Predict the structure.
Amino acid sequence: MTATCSGYCVLLPCSSQRLWVVPQRCLGEIVTVAAYTDQPPEEISWRGEIVPVADFGRQDSVPWRDQRGGTGLVAVMLGQRDEACSYFGVAVRGPNLGVSRLVDEEVEDIADAPPDYASATFRMHGHVYQVPDLLALQRAIGSGEHILQ
């Protein structure tokens, strides 16, 4: 096994309990959205496409909207071809947005069952992260399911 995984990963805070690690190539863009309420919109317009937005922190105390700037962030994920939606967004909540390489020696697997729409959980640098099941999430959103947790 190599000392690092290939490529960079995006550290994507979705709620106080969901800190995702997503391969950089799965992320289309992180979009700044004008925020008129404390909750993210159900969809955004991105590069001429209507993109549905999943929000894993609606019941959370971690804010989506920046009170000073009146904006929030949505991570637009690139979906798999031949699915009902080509792109989908995830509301970004919290301060731990970043980019990192995963180094094997710094990652500790957690054997507990991961939450919905995650395939694995691990600890790194004092935080617990999940590897999201992006295809399952894309299919759920494409079938019309609203992801509001």
